[in-house]
Write a structure and sequence with these properties.
By secondary structure, the protein is α/β, with parallel strands linked by helices. The protein contains 13 helices and 8 strands. Helix 3 crosses helix 5 and helix 6 packs parallel to helix 12. The protein is globular and about 55 Å long. The two termini are 31 Å apart.
Length: 292
């Protein structure tokens, strides 16, 4: 399987461990990641609020790059997934398409609308398949209770993304079970992490993140895992602020999606960039018998 690899911004800078883990898992599963240095930011939802057509044009340019190479596009960020997918949807409006075509024409770029956008979670559960992944497990995550945290843009708006229910998704839990872990179901798994307002109302953002971690922990989760690097920032990097917001320690290890998969497939913690996390993943490693 060959895919145009769209890592997004965070995985190339502050969240490099996400890129490390994705590349390790791709090699283990026979996925060829084709890189395009000319890819640009997806706008992260902020540009969309200010200028929808400009945001669609920005993402249409990225989609056109993959289209020209004859490849579908792989994302590892829920927000990137949402912005790129919504660009495809909104280009179905003739007025939007006309304006976007006009913006791209001076650049010598034309997008015909054939690029499929696939998040890593979709590739793992649908294209590779749970049986194939289960067959490659070398270190079952036996006994580890994991709360999946989907984030917003992978599921919403459901009528446009057209993948899973925004209220009762199950793909991540199905994957966790295939890896040998025990999925933990809790209401907060489909709620916001607080990141969109982190730099406007940080106290409120911390309360939101803290509430989701508390919810996961109350339902028995020993770790959380997310397919979104922005959610990972809220839940891991800002967990100290979330603790202040809820008034007690949380000590919740938070893993990126490919790190969970990589651990089960036999990768070392170092290969997956686990030492880069601010909240220690040592309890997770001890639970599954992995050594740092």
């Amino acid at each position: 399987m060959r895919l145009a690899y769209y890592p997004g911004c965070v995985a190339q800078e502050s969240g490099k461990e996400l890129d490390m883990a994705t590349r390790w898992v791709a090699r283990a599963l026979g996925i060829e990641l084709v890189s395009f240095p000319s890819f640009s930011c997806c706008g992260s939802g902020f540009l969309d609020e200010a200028n929808e057509v400009l945001n669609v044009a920005l993402n249409a340019r990225n989609l056109a790059i993959a289209e020209k190479a004859g490849l579908d596009l792989l994302t590892i960020c829920s927000t990137c997934q949402g912005m790129l997918t919504l660009a495809n949807v909104r280009l179905g409006d003739p007025k939007v398409k006309s304006r976007v075509d006009g913006a791209l024409r001076p650049l010598g770029i034309e997008y015909r609308g054939t690029t499929k956008v696939k998040h890593l979670l979709q590739v793992l559960t649908q294209d590779i398949g749970l049986d194939a992944i289960r067959a490659k497990v070398k270190r079952p995550l036996q006994g580890l209770k994991v709360g999946a945290f989907y984030g917003c843009h992978l599921l919403r708006p459901a009528d446009e993304l057209r993948w899973e229910s925004a209220e009762e998704p199950h793909s991540f839990e199905d994957l966790l079970a295939a890896l040998g872990a025990t999925p933990v179901y809790y209401r907060g798994r489909v709620m916001c992490c607080g990141f969109p307002i982190q730099f406007v109302k940080p106290a409120t953002a911390s309360k939101i993140a803290g509430a989701q971690i508390v919810d996961a922990k109350a339902h028995g989760a020993e770790a959380m895992a997310t397919p979104c690097p922005l959610c990972h920032i809220s839940l891991d990097a800002y967990q100290n602020q979330a603790e202040k917001a809820v008034g007690h320690s949380l000590d919740m290890p938070v893993l990126h999606l490919p790190q969970v998969v990589g651990l089960a497939l036999g990768a070392t913690p170092e290969e997956l960039g686990l030492p880069r996390h601010l909240v220690s993943t040592a309890p997770v490693l001890a639970k599954i018998g992995a050594r740092a």
